[in-house]
Amino acid sequence: MLEDARPAAESLRANRPTRSADENRDFVDLADPATENQLLPSLDDGITLLDVEGSRGVPILQSLVLDHLLIHDGLAFWVDANGHATTTTLARIAPSQRLLNRIQVARGFTAYQHYGAVCDLTTAVNQSIKTSTADIGAVGRGAPICDENTSPHTPALIVAPAIDAQYRADDTLCETHAETLQARALAKLSTYADGYDVPVLVTRSRRDEFTTAVATAADHHIECEQTRMGPRLLGEEFETLVYPVDDGAYYQTTFAYWRELLAARATRVGMEPTTPSSSTATRDGVGTGITAAGERASTTTDPLLDAWTATDTGGR
């Protein structure tokens, strides 16, 4: 059973100054408003479960962490398992080396070490707050950031990848004790999420009955599917619709993106965008369209095939 987090959560709350760190301002100023939030979802307060299809998803996890730190003040406290906090990929992905200084990593190689590291987060966070607030000069140099709730003193993010790995693999624990210890670790993370008003990002090594408790404890869920163009992320309020290429351009691989784009363009030129009714769709098609000759014709999911088989436009 999960422990009651309420009493501890109240004791962990801290006042949040509304001053930002100098190291973030350059990145925020350089962000393109037109492409903001197109590629990576934002992490909300509470526990967010990231499930990556077909792999451990280390680069995806690290990208979400670094993206969050670019637009929020404070440190990221990372309780690692199974080598997710690899410095090689972190250094390659990070746009600035000084951004890596804001990631504090603790590693647990056994179930008890991992649980102990989770329990020690309170001490580490409180010590960080004490050290940060003691530097009065650093506090005075900050400038307001877009999110008034962010602070360079309180944590920006807590990360616990492969939350089940050590409890699953520890031969000294029976299944019942392993599930209990994992549940207590989840309860601690939930306490920190409530007490510090901070996102907690977790992953699991695989989906089965043992990790049902992880999904139950999560407030948010992000699915990651590996595609030929790159990772596609899907959450409650986010879906990857475009992928970046050279020179700031973007590719798209979903019909949803084109539908939104064409509807927006139609509205801009004074046309009312319409959605074909289900009655106009054929068994093998997606609806009807207007040809270059002004005639209505049924369309399939293959536009090249439509043009090739057209009878009045030189088609086959």
UniProtKB/TrEMBL annotation:
Top-rank taxon: Archaea
Sequence segments annotated as region (Disordered): 1-25, 293-316
InterPro entries according to UniProt: P-loop_NTPase
Protein's name in the database: Inactivated RecA-like ATPase
Species name: Natranaeroarchaeum sulfidigenes
